[in-house]
Amino acid sequence: MAMPKLAPQAPVAHDKLRALGILALNGMFDEMDALSVLRYAVSDVLPGDLAIVSSFGADSSVLLHLVAQVDPSMPVYFLETGKHFPETLAYVETLKKTLGLINVHAIHPNPDDVKRFDPNGDLWETDPDSCCHIRKTEPLEPITEQYGGWVTGRKRYQTKERGVLPHFELTSDDRIKVNPLAYFSDADVIEYRQKHNLPEHPLYAKGYKSIGCAPCTSVVAEGEDPRAGRWRGLNKKECGIHFDFNGAIASPMTAATRHTLWKDGAFIADPFHEWTEESTPATASYKHVPLPVFLANRDAFLATQHPLGLLIVPGDRVEDVEADLGRFASIAINFPAFSDGRGYSTARLLAERYKYAGEIRAVGDVLQDQIPHMRRCGFNALVVTHEPTRQALIENRLPEVALFYQPVGLTEVPVGTRPFLRRVS
């Protein structure tokens, strides 16, 4: 079934009253009253603006049974990563039929991203965080942006990070996450499943107590934590889709920390991190590598499949990496000062001469008066920390540039010239 195309919801301006409203919601319900939490969220909190994200794992039938009681036509999204057990895919169909769910959609990763960053299908072995980002976080983000909130099946007992999980969360982008099963224990889940005679995941009886992608899921021994089989042996407990942008459970009271990456008309979570002294070419992932570091370790960087970015500072020659530009998912150009305009020329070289089609982002001293010029030169992303500039972007009140002396492309005409005398090269 094709996914419905909905207009993206405009982010709600964050204020204390909204945060206090979330706090009040969390005081309205008994800890175990999951059905009432979901019903109220659907009917009063976000009517018609709420979706479900389900893994169709070992205990997913409980949340989906609640959905079926409240509204079986509610949108349910399943991340079809391409790495699931065949039994999980069969379980999706079983639950759809058994529970009468009529609005279930599979979300697939971008095939170009998979081909580029995981051509052999083994990225999970060397960089599971990047694998999750490509196959889960990236595909899900444009879906969740269509809604004012979404429902999860997370529970407090599952990890230490989830130990403070409330029924309602306010995230940093002012959306609401609803967690009806937050206070359920593993025993509560089993009891509910048995009480309502819900179909069991085919792998559950074989010892798989928490089920995700096949390569990163293993059997749980008697007495082990149910999630011990997820990413066994790795310092990893979450795939990333439930993180607020700073990697933590969103506070039910405040969401003060903000995104700084402006792209496609909104401030969004930034998957990239700064290159540090501890970074190495073999393990670097979602890092903006300084151009000299890349040149000094070119073979090592080209030998890996990790997503990479490139950092260019004034004085760097982008010409030196012309042949390797396709290796980078993002190129960050640093503006060390408002008055330093060398970054504009670099962006134009990338966009016009080298036809680089990836992300060109401005970092450093990025102020609102520069942004119209940056956009003309090819920048399509900005890292903005200056508060007045942030507000100008959010409120769409940037200054306009009607006159200019240096044209971009073939259509602009500089001040003081006659258009008909311009030669087209």
From TrEMBL:
The keyword Disulfide bond does not apply. [4Fe-4S] cluster binds at residues 131-132, 213, 216. This is Adenosine 5'-phosphosulfate reductase. Its cofactor is [4Fe-4S] cluster. GO terms for molecular function: phosphoadenylyl-sulfate reductase (thioredoxin) activity. Catalyzes the formation of sulfite from adenosine 5'-phosphosulfate (APS) using thioredoxin as an electron donor. Pfam families: DUF934, PAPS_reduct. Pathway: Sulfur metabolism; hydrogen sulfide biosynthesis; sulfite from sulfate. It is found in: Cytoplasm. Belongs to the PAPS reductase family. CysH subfamily. The active site is at 239 (nucleophile). Residues 50-218 form the Phosphoadenosine phosphosulphate reductase domain. Its main location: cytoplasm. Keywords: Cytoplasm, Iron, Iron-sulfur, Metal-binding, Oxidoreductase. The lineage of its organism: Bacteria, Pseudomonadati, Pseudomonadota, Alphaproteobacteria, Hyphomicrobiales. It catalyses: [thioredoxin]-disulfide + sulfite + AMP + 2 H(+) = adenosine 5'-phosphosulfate + [thioredoxin]-dithiol. Its EC number is 1.8.4.10. Binds 1 [4Fe-4S] cluster per subunit. It comes from Devosia oryziradicis.
